[in-house]
Write a structure and sequence with these properties.
CATH superfamily of the largest domain: Periplasmic binding protein-like II
CATH topology of the largest domain: D-Maltodextrin-Binding Protein, domain 2
Number of helices: 11
Number of domains: 2
Radius of gyration: 20 Å
Helix content: 25-40%
CATH architecture of the largest domain: 3-Layer(aba) Sandwich
Distance between the termini: 23 Å
Low-confidence stretches: 1-25
Length: about 325
């Protein structure tokens, strides 16, 4: 029976302590149920999302509501800087579930930059794709990523998946980081800078549509903005990570003059490798059984597919998720 429990956004570990966990050792979430089952058990979890105007934030809140409404686990969703920060704080124990771009997770399991060693993480499964969205002011003279030279470009929040992709794109275009006046801004500040002209362009990796970009296009209009096609850089990008692929941003997304080819990267839900298998199984089942609810929260959720959930290489599925997906795909 579904229980209507308010979703608490930005729930922090300190807040959990104030709720009654302070001063005592908290039980590992899900550890009170049979590990061979798909029962969630009980306890508290925190989900690391992303910028408040991004898709992770919306989807993370929707996931927290599903957990609260369908299990005895209490969940909260926290606003963060996104992928790289999420992984680091997931491993540190600050969060229990984390949204991440697959390229950042790939670097984490291999221990490559910006991670100094392999991280002990697993995934619950592949979810919807992120689209690389490069938007510039029409008066900036920018038509390719190589034209970023000498321009002021927002490359996303520090330690975000967007920043990682922007850095790789700049390198793939043959530019040095010092060639670009990089601004490490969250999406809200980025859009404000695009509106007032202090920023020439932005790189954003997110689902479609992203509300902050909808606001930008509504304010300035497509005649004052240009969306850049980065696909000529795909061969170089794939040398850095095999997870990149081509995709299309439909013109209806932001009332664009035409469809725009782009580079896409899958998103994954990450957990530590020591999460109880029963909880991982329960969470995985919850996500893929409730794709309609996630799609109602944001259109990106409609792109979550059970038949692609296990396509996460080189990020290994959690054993509990493997069990869940085997049952879901055999239905």
């Amino acid at each position: 029976m579904k229980v209507n429990i308010p979703w608490v956004v930005g729930l922090t570990i300190a807040a959990l302590g104030a709720a009654g966990l302070g001063g005592q050792t908290a039980r590992v979430p899900g550890s009170d149920a049979d590990p061979a089952s798909c029962a969630a058990g009980s306890g508290r979890i925190t989900i690391a999302t992303g910028n408040s105007t991004g898709v992770y934030y919306v989807m993370g809140g929707a996931l927290a509501r599903l957990v609260n409404g369908h299990t005895d686990v209490r969940a909260g969703a926290a606003e963060t800087g996104a992928s790289v920060q999420n992984i680091r704080q997931l491993v540190a124990g600050d969060y229990d579930v984390a949204f991440s771009l697959a390229d950042a997770a790939d670097a984490a399991v291999r221990g490559t930059s910006p991670f100094g060693e392999p991280q002990k993480i697993r995934t619950l499964g592949r979810i919807y794709p992120n689209y690389t969205q490069i938007v510039v002011r029409a008066d900036s003279g920018i038509r390719t990523v190589a034209d970023f030279k000498g321009k002021t470009i927002s490359t996303g929040s520090p330690l975000s998946g967007t920043e990682a992709i922007a850095t790789k794109l700049i390198d793939a275009a043959g530019l040095d980081e010092l060639d670009v006046n990089r601004q490490r801004l969250d999406l809200t500040k980025t859009v404000d800078g695009m509106k007032d002209g202090s920023i020439d362009g932005l790189v954003w990796s997110g689902g479609l549509p992203t509300s902050a970009l909808t606001d930008l296009y509504t304010t300035l209009g497509s005649e004052d903005l240009r969306m850049i096609d980065p696909t000529p850089l795909l061969p170089e990008m794939k040398k850095k990570s095999a997870v990149y692929d081509t995709a299309t941003i439909p013109k209806a997304t932001y009332d664009l003059p035409a469809d725009v080819p782009t580079i896409a990267v899958p998103n994954v839900l990450l957990v530590r490798d020591d999460m109880p298998a029963n909880l991982a199984c329960a969470l995985t089942t919850l996500v893929y059984d409730n794709r309609q609810a996630l799609g109602a929260a944001h259109p990106a959720g409609k792109d979550i597919r059970v038949d692609e959930a296990d396509r996460t290489a080189p990020i290994r599925l959690h054993p509990g998720s493997e069990r869940a997906l085997a049952g879901l795909t055999s239905r």
